[in-house]
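Email to the structure team, subject: TetR/AcrR family transcriptional regulator model.

Hi all, the expression group asked for a predicted structure before they design truncation constructs. Nothing fancy, just the tokens so they can compare against earlier work. One-line instruction: predict TetR/AcrR family transcriptional regulator, return tokens.
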Amino acid sequence: MCAQLIDIPEIDKAEARRLQVLDAAATCFRVAGFHAASMASIAKAAGMSVGHIYHYFDNKEAIISAIIDREQHKQLQVIHMLLHAENTIAALIEHAAEGLADSLDLSNSALNFEMIAEASRNPKVAEMLQASNRVLHEFGKDIITKARQGLPALSEADNDARCDLIISLFNGLSMRAISNPDLDTEAILPALQRTIVQIVRS
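Reply from the structure team: attached below.
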């Protein structure tokens, strides 16, 4: 007996198309840069018409906003896992490997740097990135607080600084991977893990 075909709801089809556009746009931004990547080139990469693209996004800024939202959602899933871990510091150490791999992924780095470059020129994009950073930064401080259970409480400024340092470690590794593609990740990972523990627990 043949399995009964189930119609995919229109909202699911629409979301799939939307994600298809985001993936195509991310590729175009990485390869050509934000300004050189036209809506026509994004449409071609997505395998649809330009008019179809505008059905989902008003302009390239709207696409960037959606890419930022998607990355924020990914990071919030990690944050949720860390905040609900039985041993937060152990979970942080374990997750450092995944964070390092993401930081050293040149395709991720290229897209992130392209959006940062655009943010330096475009106040709207800058506000998008800053708004996302504010959300993730606050949760990052919660993780540090939870990982320091049993230790003296930190001042707000100290917690801010430690959170910024950890974020800067991973951002800096992204840049370093471009200038030095031969990074010894096997040596870097344990050093990174020790540094995170020192920042959080000292």
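Confidence is low (pLDDT under 50) at residues 1-8. DSSP finds nine helices and no strands in the chain. Ping us if the truncation boundaries need rechecking.
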